[in-house]
Amino acid sequence: MFDEVIDKILSAINENENFSETYPKFSGEGYRAHRIDINNFHEIKKITSDKKIAFIDGGNAEIIGSANFSLNLIRVCYVIYQNNRKIKAKKFEILAFTKAINENDEICFKTAFFNINNNLKLDEISFSSLDHTLMHGVNRAEITNVANAIRRFAELKLAKYVADNRISDFIVLDGNLQCTLTNESAYLNELYESCEQNNVVLSALSKTNSLFTENGNLLSAVLSSIGSPDSWLYYPIVDIENHNHKAEMFFAKFHEKSRHVFRFEIFNIQKNKAEEAISMLAANSTDPIFIGYPYGLVEADRTARVSNNEKESLKTMLLVKLRNKNIEKYLSAVNAHEILDRISF
């Protein structure tokens, strides 16, 4: 049976492996794709630089919640590298309490913040439960989806803090520079303005990407197949004229021994700094723990991640404080799945 499944998978993959005369496929308006061309591969130049580069990432975990409220720990951090050495790191933590309310005869999710350390100055945020940027399918968004949006806003707010205070010459976000969430453009536009005023280069690197070619293949897989075995950058890919995506896009293989190709974006008015930024990232991508991926982002991910032990410790402390406070009827609405998980073991 499995031989048949394997043959089917290989057949499906091979059907798409026609790499000639194909274009990347972009959804939405304002994207003019360039045909994939072997001449668009370029060597990553080694540029000597003693400039500082800040890697920014975030993590979050729900501490306690039900269908109508959710308390999340959100942690964001920056890690600064110079001459490929970590020189500074700082993390910021907030508790975000989201509750369902009736606002203009509609169910909305409103979030208030409680700073644990290092105030990020996030204002109260409200999302409609029918916000299409949070929904999955046609169902009302779940309240837990709000935390991921808030984490993204916190990362952008932290990046602005780095730019405002000129802590670093370059910023690398985990992800991309495209606005996909309601209200995200306000945070990104403030960040763009600060980076432009303070001469700080803003960029982003995606760990994963789902960009396709017009024949349904994965763009990164196509570039990996036709690119050289050495490290390289690929450009141009697309002309972007979308006010929600102020970026120049590249793909890059940062190390010759890497099997990974990453999507890299830079604030479009700073595209003349792209080669320098990519050179710095390549120099930071030599650690065997994840060769070909900037170690600064590995470090930022590790610093920002909320462990299960931390989550359970905070949850236990809160439940002790909340006992006899009549919240069990709310928690029981969502914990049936946890009970089934325990029964399965």
What is this structure's SSE topology?
Layout: H1 2-16, E1 24-25, E2 31-33, E3 41-42, E4 52-65, E5 69-82, E6 85-102, E7 107-117, E8 125-128, H2 145-164, E9 170-174, H3 184-198, E10 201-206, E11 212-213, H4 219-226, E12 232-234, E13 238-240, E14 247-253, E15 262-267, H5 274-283, H6 295-304, H7 308-322, H8 328-331, H9 336-344
Parallel strand pairs: 4-9, 9-10
Antiparallel strand pairs: 1-11, 2-13, 3-12, 4-5, 5-6, 6-7, 7-8, 10-15, 12-14, 14-15
Helix pairs in contact: 2-3
Low-confidence stretches: none
Following the backbone from N to C, one meets helices and strands in this order, namely HEEEEEEEEHEHEEHEEEEHHHHH
Q: What's the main sheet like?
A: 11 strands, mixed
Structural class, by secondary structure, is alpha+beta
The share of residues in helices is: 25-40%
How are the strands ordered across the major sheet? 3-12-14-15-10-9-4-5-6-7-8
Mean pLDDT: 89
Coarse morphology: globular
What is the helix tally?
A: 9
User: Total number of β-strand segments?
Assistant: 15
End-to-end C-alpha gap:
29 Å
The share of residues in extended strands comes to 25-35%
Radius of gyration (CA) equals: 22 Å
Give an account of the 3D structure.
The protein is of the alpha+beta class. It is built from nine helices and 15 strands. It has helices at residues 2-16, 145-164, 184-198, 219-226, 274-283, 295-304, 308-322, 328-331, 336-344, and strands at residues 24-25, 31-33, 41-42, 52-65, 69-82, 85-102, 107-117, 125-128, 170-174, 201-206, 212-213, 232-234, 238-240, 247-253, 262-267. The chain has an eleven-stranded mixed β-sheet with strand order 3-12-14-15-10-9-4-5-6-7-8, sandwiched between helices. A two-stranded antiparallel sheet has the order 1-11. A hairpin with a 7-residue loop joins strand 7 (107-117) and strand 8 (125-128). Helix 2 packs parallel to helix 3. The mean pLDDT is 89.
